Known about the structure:
It contains four helices and eleven strands. By secondary structure, the chain is of the alpha+beta class.
Amino acid sequence: xxxxxxxxxxIPLPWAAALLLALRVGRALALPExxxxxxxxxxxxxxxxxxxxxxxxxxxxARCCLxxxxxxLGLDLQNCSLKDLGPNFPQAHTAVIxxxxxxxxxxxxxxxxHGFIQxxxxxxxxxxNCPGGINAWNTVTFYPDNQTCEGQRNLCNSTGDxxxxxxxxxxxxxxxxxxxCVCADGFHGYKCMRQGSFSLLTFFGILGSTTLFISIxxxxxxxxxxxxx
Length: 229
């Protein structure tokens, strides 16, 4: 082994290289399934890549743009031959930008984006409508190869209906063109009209008693039939 020259950079140890490789492999294995649903990686020229490179805190991994906590901020599934988005798609509900164009998607995405309240840019095939319709977005732009929906609107503020939720409930957005009414603290039930905490003990007590009563009734009926025969 040749002696090390003074002032030369330290020689990397094999175990250090192995540790770095293991960390990278571990990070790859920890990626959400939606990020590896399609082979390949995000193209440098794509809108998801451009968004991700705006700050050093965001990094590209497979088909996703992640922050330092591993939260999905961008998803690029363009040209993946997808006919539907699959069961893993809700993993991307934190995404700000999603690219789905160049896929043979069905034109029925209305209920696919439940909970995608952070989504601000959605790129779709030209024959697929923006979820929620044009009224759910500030801008809908048509291009030869895609349709871009930008600026998700908060329907709770734009419907103009002040009584959209009951008196003891409040309106919260639930994705493009979607909203839900949430009961205030201390209220529950139909139209948030019941006051007080919801007692699980009482609920399961009533359910258990009813089940026991029906079971005894059925057992007695079957016993009578058996004796009669």
